[in-house]
Amino acid sequence: MNQERVDKVKAVNEQLSSILKEVNSIKEENAYMKKALDRARYEADEERSKNKELQVQLEGLKMAKVISGEEPIDKHARTKINEMVKEIDRCIALMNN
Predict the structure, then answer these.
(1) Distance (Å, rounded) from C-alpha 93 to C-alpha 95?
(2) What is the pTM for the complete model shown?
(3) Do residues 86 and 65 lie in contact, with contact meaning Cβ atoms separated by under 8 Å?
């Protein structure tokens, strides 16, 4: 009877040891995944930033082509030009006050 208890305790200890190894392995994997996620988020932020910069450059190039006469003025370009003129008018008004 005593040997049975010893055997059961050994079996439980082995299972506990196995579970602890698995938990540690999962913790390591989780830490790796968190780092990978942080890296991916950083890269996504960088790409969004680059995309915004490129959109601004594209708008500038489109406007430059319209102003230089290379392309006809479309509705979007006309709207942008009108916005710019309004902003210039506001600046002039502020300077006059």
Answers:
(1) 5
(2) 0.55
(3) no
Residues in the chain: 97
Secondary structure of the chain: what % helix, strand, coil (to 5)? Answer: 90, 0, 10
Handedness of CA 90, 94, 58, 39 (dihedral sign): negative
**Do 62 and 77 form a contact (C-beta atoms < 8 A)?**
yes
d(CA 36, CA 9): 40
How far is the C-alpha of 80 from the C-alpha of 82, rounded, in Å?
5
Read off the tokens for 22.
């698995």
Q: How far apart are CA 79 and CA 96, in angstroms?
A: 26
Q: Tens of pLDDT along 52-78?
A: 999 999 988 887 887 777 777 777 777
Q: Max Cα separation, the chain?
A: 103
Q: What residue type is 45 in one-letter code?
A: D
